[in-house]
Design a protein that fits this description.
five-stranded parallel β-sheet, six-stranded mixed β-sheet, globular, 31 helices, alpha/beta
Length: 765
Amino acid sequence: MSSSKITKNKDPNSLLNLQYEYLIVNKLKSIITQGNLYNLIIDTKIEPILYRIISKQHLLRLVTSIEFIDAKRKPNKFMSAIYLVDLTIYNMKCIITDVQKNRYKSGHALFLATPTDPKTIHFFKSNQFMGNEQIFNYFNQSDSIKFIQIGLYPEESRVFLTDNKTKNSMPIYFNDNCSELVRHQIKLAARSLLNLMIITGEFPFVRYYSPQHPTHRASTLCEFIAEEFQRQIDEYCRVNDDYPPPYTPDKPRSILLITDRTLDLYAPLLHEFTYQAMAMDIVESLERNGVYKYSAENEAGEKMDIEAKLDDEDDEDWINIRHLHIIESSEIIFNKISELIKNNPLMIDRSKASTSSDLMYIVAHLKGFDEERKKLTLHKTLIDECLDLNADRKLAELAADFEQTCCAQGVNFEGERNRHLHDDLIVLLSRDDLHINDKMRLILIYAFYRGGLIESDFKKLTKFIGVNDLQIIGLISRCFVNLAKLGFPVIKPSIKDKPMTKHTFHRINNEGTYNTSRFQPALKNVLTNLTRFQLDEEWFPYFRDKPLVNDIPDKKSHSSTNSSNSSATLPTSGSLRNPRIKAQWASSASLRHANSLTSTRSSSSIPKQRIFVYVAGGITYSEMRSVYELSHELGRDMYIGSESIINPRDFLIGLQDVDTNKGIRDLELNLSRELEKAESEIPRYLYEDERPPAPPVQSPAVTKMNQFDEQVRKQQQMSSSSGAGTGPGLYRKRSDLSTGNSSMADSNGKSKEKKKTSRLKKLFS
């Protein structure tokens, strides 16, 4: 295997490739030596990260087997174990049974992050674990133990999550009943950011969102994350002499911005009409489970049920069109299918293909082109379904214009003020063909626009939704009430009270082609100002270090980086829907991603400033898209992360889950399950001895053959005892060799034991 991930994606700045380089090349391969056999022991925390950056097939070229630490494992006394696991009491108990039952000849540990929990540290140092001579020697007097900083799941080349199991992190931060989890989640967030800085080789300036005159309890969340991150990275610097990397004069110091979901409450409620966002928003199987289920024909003409995840960073079609408007994505895929058919020497009569369905029939029966055909079929089927659902739910036709006008403070696409938005809302809520969730979103967006409504107005609007179920009405009401926990109390005590004024950072672009895409997320505007060092320091203070005058890059040199792209100097040009530059929009979309895929020489020769942003409480697909767009427009390497990716449905569920009626047990949070498991009892079967199976009952013929083999063996022994044969060690059993090695290790261990015990202290010094 080469030093890079086995992938078509050669972008050296992709998080998948950077994490692969750190974990597989620098850490795992440093343990493996030629001629030895290794059993890789993992846990459920590392598994998704591991298989995101390397396939199991390729991993098995490095190690002999891969097993879970709490699985029922057979003894492999001729193998060494490599423990790639989180350092928890639960995992340490599993390791203890491995040593007691002599399952492996020796152990190597790559523990995920240095522990900070007092209980875990105490157990690690105790006589049960590293204070136990048997375990101490099992890990070569602790020399075989390393702590690695892994806490980042690379979702995309520029998008990361703290894990891939947290569906919605809003209740962790904003539900008062989950206050005991906040500290743990903050540590996980900081840990993922530390992992990010290590693999990118950065030591950033840290800025955080600090809302002025806050009304919600979690207003200091971003500052707490910034503080914990600074503590972790300072500690890492203290114990690692090679970090941070040497200063590069031509490269500006990176910046980390920490914000949270309250920065922009419009973004998670609006429907986004780009391909990726639309698919993950309105296609039910993707919206709920992240898996697309569809039917397609194979070459034999048979209908097959297929499941696919939209996470293939090697799919160039997906990379190039996922952030385009759904109409443009449809056109590009249609043209690619037509081109594939045209260039196929075995094609059937092209004149017979008069409809989209005809094209798909032809593609299904093409010989060869297997991978390309599968991917094009996936995208064509999914895009068509998105367009059909959009038509059924009247999203673009009815809802989108109302949404965008509310975000624009009542100004419509033509630049005129709409003074009848309340009447428009009543008409929309009265329609039977609008989804209940869509009606809920419209009420909330209207409430933001109005700066809040009195409770009786909310009740009246809820009646127009057409729901008679009291339980559902209660859920809807809680959504309105719970917005106060996110810093926007939309329910006014009295009609005489002034509207709630909340400072917003989003922008409206009226120069685009589509009235459904006028809204630009707040994060896009904030990041644009951040890169130009024009961000308000009251709202976004530095945590500790501030750049000196010499640290601020020359604005002219930055704007000249992309002089051919006028949008780099205009903060309002992110939409790119203007018909005059529509052709450039299509090509620039390809450039934005193809640059990183195929032109690595130019990107590596010019050191780019890196900008990192972390959004506690969930990120939206529009915010992810903005990071990719700004990376290209501003000539920076930008990355965005959070605990989860949320769509409008997730946000509404999150508003219900922050309610005080819901406790930790009701929410079924992954973090809560992990904390419980960390100190739980391990399975009883790990304490049991693995006995070899009883020999099978043999037939008389087999028994006779075995007797003949035994006679031959005795004759060979007599021959060897008379001096024939080669040296004594050539055909020794593996068990003899193993015993010899272990005894040698024991004798060496005793002579070094006094000297090396002090190494244990260094682990936590």
